[in-house]
What we know:
The chain is mainly α. Mean pLDDT is 95; it is low at 1-13. 65% of the residues lie in helices and 1% in strands. The protein has 16 helices and two strands. Strands 1-2 form a two-stranded antiparallel sheet. The site of protoporphyrin IX containing FE has 23 residues, from helix 2, helix 3, helix 14 and helix 16.
Amino acid sequence: MTHTPLKNSGFYSESPRSGILGWLLTTDHKRIGIMYLCCIIVMFIVAAILGLALRLELIAPGPTIMGAQTYNATFTVHGIIMIFLVIIPSIPATFGNLLLPIHIGARDVSFPKINLISWYCYIAGGILAIFSIFSGGGAPDTGWTFYVPFSTQTTTNVNLAVMGAFMLGFSSILTGLNFVTTIHRLRAKGMGWGRLPLFVWTLYSTAWIQVLATPMLGITLVLVLLERVFGAGLFDAARGGDPILYQHLFWIYSHPAVYIMILPAMGVISEIIPTFSRKPLFGYWAMAISSLAIAFAGSLVWAHHMYASGMSDFAILIFSFLTFVVAIPSAIKVFNWVATLYKGSIQLAPPMLFALAFIFQFAIGGLGGLALGAAASDIHLTDTTFVVGHFHYVMFGGTGFAFFAALHYWLPKFTGRMYNHKIAVISWGLMFVGFNVTYMSMQAVGIMGMPRRYYDYLPEFQTLNVVATIGSWVLAVSLAIMFINLWNGIRRGAPVGKNPWGGATLEWTIPSPPPLENFGEEDPIVTKGPYDYKGVVADEY
Ligand code: HEM
Ligand SMILES: [Cu+2]
């Protein structure tokens, strides 16, 4: 069958421009994915350095390296960058862009130009957020949650930070729009819904949250601006407004947003576990449907962040019950990953090690989430460092480690070169220890009662804080080793063929790196499911 150019995509009219314009004006999904990847890794390093500064400050009670105002600004900027510029786009905008069209047998996404615009929205949002740190008025000090009334009163650069988050929300909506349309419209012949890689199912579920929930954040941030610039009074109790309304509006997006963060990560794990167990993934449809179930049920639980805001016991009961309901599809995923490992011929290659650490840390994060979902324990734990430890377990120990697993799994595919495995395993080992020491200590001192968001604390909390800070240094060293090793791999690594890992999804059937049009003259025709390893062997390299 002859190949037919995609209509209106202008994809084929684009001859690869050389030089910087070949990137800044590209509409190729792979190049856009790589541009996101570079930006996100830089942002991660910047925000991680701020995180390390927070830990260093907390090594002793009282001021160590900074005072109260700087501490408040540092955790605010750390949180804003990590959430909006790193974790939310981390997997969809990078590996989603790199792989989604290839996984479904297409040559690009439905709207390549809109895809490029989403990247420019990301850049614009990033510039505004970074500007908010350095321009007059001082870096925002409200926390990443921008809670009113403080965020409408403080004189720091909340306006710029809010506008930055608004632009980043737009970037996320455009990515979601593209992915939903692409999955519905551009699947290759034979690529029925039951043959989609599970990574695609998680991107699909995430895309619906990006499209439906993110506008809520946009509206809420505009209301904060209206309050700050025009004194609208919407959240001002003295003028008939309601500050609690803000918390509802904010979490109606921000809780589903945690699934924008974790669902694609779960998809990465569902690609890696079967490849290195040499077994089809256990319970394909249970995994596919549980992604949709998490996206749906996850939009019904937002007020579990507000048990201490004066809500009625009945409302607390409802939101607590719904929070436990969301745990069910998440638990199904953990069960099915473990069932896939069972009796598999396990290969502990670097991507697999990061994937196994994900399962361990996500399980701890998930159990911590149940303790926070239960009103009785949450009333004690809310706003302590237990909460901080908990979301680092889910967002860093979960999504972060899945992002690193994806880097180790797919970078050889898109660069054509392999990194040093021994160094990768060492960086993984150090990271696993450093991570768990840092955040398990923060959870423990939170249970003892240490509040979050204070640069100072009671002397009895010091021991665990010293342990946590030392843990963060081990974490920092491991991150440095990992990034240097991957960079060396990109530059000087051993060349690899189409399929260095013996994967069975479509990307492992095309050259490394893939050609501009992904597939040759002929559009692929799909005849089997994504995890059928019969006759599939890994290339030597
Ligand atoms: C090297 C890595 C990191 C270190 C050392 C670190 C450290 C910290 C510390 C100590 C705090 C608590 C501040 C306080 O409440 O007193 C914090 C807050 C936070 N961290 Fe991290 N973190 C790291 C990575 C991450 C990652 C990967 C994320 C991803 C989402 C993240 C997101 C956040 C958020 C959202 C907050 C809350 C900020 C706020 O209270 O407004 N961090 N981090
Ligand atoms: Cu939540």
